[in-house]
Design brief:
homotrimer, mainly alpha
């Protein structure tokens, strides 16, 4: 098992635990918790594969991912209270997951010969969409639309990838530099409470329906 | 038309009526009712096909399914009050549908050469996902996350399939035994109000957001 | 750039602006607005492509669409107040978009050799589904289920397509006549407040859950 695979499993663990905790806080039953954990961890990659036409989608042929998620759910059940206290550690895990998923998604787009903007979008979808489905399933406006730095970090890190690519930096270094950028921007953004502009309408009771 | 096809149509009928009734109880208009009925009946199979890379997805080339759903919607419009009184019959239909959809999805996974756990998951998705999309569209937390025996029955029945497969039981008998297991577990679970463990956090106002 | 492509871009512009305005009225941040605009404009076509097995889905290889949406979001940010006053113009744009998307989706179904009913459904999905995902993401019951003429116009216009096809009308004329039917029905329906029958249950507190 190489370095990237280890990081990949760390990312999956973080996402699965984050999903399981969200489901527990909504008081879902055991099965609901498993589904939400699974969707949070595998949802982004699934949408990426569907959009690219990769079939069967990757979790179907990757039992490591499936076992990892199941173990995470069991651990979360047992240690749910303690895990909530480890929130900073989990946040770190989650950021690592986002960093890795972004670069993996982006590289799959490159392999398919897509435009850099589309590749960055794919990376962003891989990293963020699991959380979006999780929020839809538990009936909330996805957190990504309210705490934007999540996706902005992916976009910034993805841009780093293409800038370095232009300067002929070796591929492994690009991968790490780009992933680390995502992780650092995310951590700094949360630490310093960075926010994107949020231009709102004053008369927001005027609904816009077509 | 063979036995399985007849069962398949019974399942579709039950799902379509269940969807139409849910839409009516949300006071949607005629078109909304048709969509919700369609999604409830065809949604699980559609996701299964997308995940497996079967295209075009099966309802697109299966007009029987489409006509069955349209007829069900019309019948539901006309007899909506009487149908609500037949709830037990509908519940039975619905259980039969779940049983059949589970085994069909599972077998499609087997044909694609997937791992047994993935096959059972596919069966479960085929049987349950239509209801999940229905609930998302009418803006509720999917019932599957609140009344778990739904999916647990699919998993148990799917496991029966692989246990019998190991003992070289003939395929037709496996199909029926596995489907009947799903149906029986579901019916018993609802009758005796079985529930999965529901481990919840006491301080659930502490949100877990990443 | 030919006539159809110009119409296609007009449709995309209208959908992107309609999505961006919906996101602004929900007070999402800049990134959330971009996603919602993108999903509203590209979501219907994406689902159409996934269902048909077209991969990668079309927006991934169509940078015009991507640039158009980004420009629309920027314009919406700057002129959001003025745009809300142009609501009638936007409604017209939106109707044009629906008309075009319906016929394009329908023709893709025809090329795939599907049954007319399925083709009309595909056209309807292409035109309406972007709005459905938009509404799910901002956590509302999709407007399509409450203001049905949206989809009914697509179905009626799609039917015009197949009636004209039977009379051997030239393809270009069929395209335009069918698209214009969708647009006219939509505009007339909104102007005269047409509504589909809305048969509701009196005792709607009796939930129907399976």
């Amino acid at each position: 098992m190489d370095f990237i695979q280890i990081l990949d499993i760390i990312g999956t663990i973080a996402f699965a635990i984050s999903g399981a905790l969200a489901a527990l806080s909504k008081k879902l039953d055991a099965f609901g918790v498993i589904i939400i954990a699974f969707v949070t961890a595998a949802g982004g990659g699934t949408l990426r594969d569907i959009l690219l036409g990769v079939s069967p989608v990757s979790w179907m042929t990757n039992m490591n991912l499936v076992y990892t998620i199941l173990i995470c759910v069991i651990v979360t059940f047992i240690f749910s209270k303690r895990l909530l206290k480890l929130r900073k550690t989990l946040f770190l895990f989650d950021s690592v997951g986002i960093g890795i998923y972004t670069v993996v998604g982006l590289e799959m787009g490159l392999i398919a010969g897509l435009h850099p903007i589309i590749c960055v979008t794919l990376g962003c979808i891989s990293a963020c969409f699991g959380g979006v489905i999780r929020d839809i399933l538990v009936n909330e406006i996805p957190v990504i639309f309210r705490k934007n730095i999540y996706a902005t970090a992916c976009i910034a890190g993805g841009s780093v990838y293409f800038i370095l690519l232009r300067f002929n930096v070796p591929e492994n270094i690009i991968f790490i530099a780009s992933g680390v950028s995502v992780i650092m921007i995310r951590i700094l953004a949360v630490h310093f409470k960075w926010q994107l502009p949020r231009p709102y309408l004053e008369e927001d009771d005027e609904k816009t329906q077509f």
